[in-house]
Design a protein that fits this description.
Blueprint lengths: L1 E5 L5 H4 L11 E10 L3 H14 L15 E11 L7 E3 L1 H6 L5
């Protein structure tokens, strides 16, 4: 599976007169395998994340059989210029990164 996001949500490109569809408007693609969340600690974290952002989902009927899944990241690609992904980030470094701010 692949999850992709781009910097349009930050308004960086728009504020700097860059077309959101331009390769120079940064994009990140995470690829890996989807796995059902089964461990209780991970389920608590998943529920917190979902319900705090989308409170109505807490009351969905059990018959909907809603479950939580996670992406086990195998590859991280950054596209920020012409010619394809410019960076293939190290997954371990990415997951262990701690910002200095």
């Amino acid at each position: 599976a692949v999850v992709s996001t781009q910097s349009t949500g930050t308004h960086y490109c728009t504020d700097n007169n860059i077309d959101n569809d331009s390769p120079t408007c940064g994009k990140v693609m995470l690829s890996g395998e989807i796995e059902k969340v089964t461990q209780e600690e991970e389920l608590k974290w998943a529920r917190y994340g979902m319900y705090s952002r989308h409170p109505d989902t807490k009351h969905w009927p059990p018959g909907h059989n809603f479950t939580f899944y996670k992406l086990n990241i195998r590859n991280i690609f950054v596209l920020d210029y012409y010619g394809g992904p410019t960076e293939h980030l190290n997954v371990t470094e990415y997951l262990n990164y701690r910002p200095s701010w």
